[in-house]
């Protein structure tokens, strides 16, 4: 079954609104794990608007499931922020997903341009793999680009699924779905594992994961929003029910 990795950024965002320690990111992560989630995802950013370096380290020390840290390896050091690579080196997650987001972005909105960035990513990927981490690259669903991810020595790609989610909501998903299916197939034929994430939810997840071989989905915003209606434990279980087919 496809692994569900719960992104707990939005829990941290709510915590930071008052900064009195509630809700607890670690407690939320533990509830997700107890409910059956196979992983926890965080995406620290230089402005620390949600996940902080201290959260990353606390999770690294407590988690017994896969820990996935997402972010831009070229992010700058800032006040209280040691830089993405320093955070990852200290935490030693199971998987590091490299994402080409900039500090001013509200959320990730595109995959890597590996024709431009592939060469400078190679030594970073090599270092992360030498430290024992699996490395995934955040990619748009372009089949021809999967070969560049292989050349950069990535282990996996994470397909950026916003356009799929938009098409699903609009009721004209078939063409977009086919693009993702072809991209996933191209990646798999090259020996890459395939993850996916961004705007996946209870409604559109089942169809997306009918694509063969999707190893992992990272879901945060929609899942935390659902948890406000159903409770966090039940929400995780509902997502797992969809993934189980």
Polypeptide structure, described:
By secondary structure, the chain is α/β, with parallel strands linked by helices. The protein has one domain (3-243): Aldolase class I (TIM Barrel, Alpha-Beta Barrel), CATH 3.20.20. It has 11 helices and 8 strands. The chain has helices at 9-18, 25-34, 53-62, 84-91, 114-130, 146-151, 162-170, 174-189, 205-208, 221-230, 232-243, and strands at 3-7, 39-42, 66-71, 95-98, 134-139, 156-160, 193-197, 214-219. Strands 1-2-3-4-5-6-7-8 form an 8-stranded parallel barrel, surrounded by 6 helices. Helix 7 (162-170) packs antiparallel against helix 8 and helix 10 (221-230) packs across helix 11. The longest helix is centred in the middle third of the chain and has 17 residues, at 114-130.
Going across the major beta sheet, what is the strand order? Answer: 1-2-3-4-5-6-7-8
Structural class: alpha/beta
Mean pLDDT: 95
What gyration radius follows from the Cα positions, in whole Å? 17 Å
Low-confidence stretches: none
Distance between the termini: 9 Å
Number of strands: 8
Largest sheet: 8 strands, parallel, barrel
What fold name goes in the CATH topology slot? TIM Barrel
- Following the backbone from N to C, one meets helices and strands in this order, namely EHHEHEHEHEHEHHEHEHH
Question: What are the SSEs and their pairings?
Answer:
Layout: E1 3-7, H1 9-18, H2 25-34, E2 39-42, H3 53-62, E3 66-71, H4 84-91, E4 95-98, H5 114-130, E5 134-139, H6 146-151, E6 156-160, H7 162-170, H8 174-189, E7 193-197, H9 205-208, E8 214-219, H10 221-230, H11 232-243
Parallel strand pairs: 1-2, 1-8, 2-3, 3-4, 4-5, 5-6, 6-7, 7-8
């Amino acid at each position: 079954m496809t692994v569900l990795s719960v992104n707990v950024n939005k829990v941290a965002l709510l915590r930071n609104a008052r900064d009195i320690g509630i809700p607890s990111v670690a407690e939320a992560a533990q509830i997700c794990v107890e409910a059956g989630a196979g992983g926890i995802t965080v995406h620290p950013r230089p402005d620390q608007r949600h996940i902080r370096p201290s959260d990353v380290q606390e999770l690294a020390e407590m988690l017994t499931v896969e820990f996935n840290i997402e972010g831009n390896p070229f992010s700058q050091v800032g006040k209280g922020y040691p830089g993405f690579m320093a955070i990852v080196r200290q935490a030693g997650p199971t998987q590091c997903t490299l994402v080409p987001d900039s500090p001013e972005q509200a959320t990730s909105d595109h995959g890597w341009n590996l024709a431009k960035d592939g060469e400078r990513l190679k030594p970073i990927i090599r270092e992360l793999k030498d430290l024992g981490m699996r490395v995934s690259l955040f990619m748009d669903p372009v089949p021809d680009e999967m070969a560049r991810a292989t050349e950069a020595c990535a282990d996996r790609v994470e397909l950026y699924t916003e356009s799929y989610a938009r098409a699903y909501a609009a009721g004209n998903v078939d063409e977009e779905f086919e693009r993702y299916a072809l991209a996933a197939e191209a990646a798999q034929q090259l020996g890459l594992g395939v993850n996916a994430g961004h705007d996946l939810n209870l409604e559109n997840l089942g169809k997306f994961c009918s694509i063969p071989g999707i190893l992992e989905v990272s879901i945060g915003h929609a899942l935390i929003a659902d948890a406000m209606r159903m409770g966090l434990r039940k929400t995780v279980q509902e997502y797992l029910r969809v993934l189980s087919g």
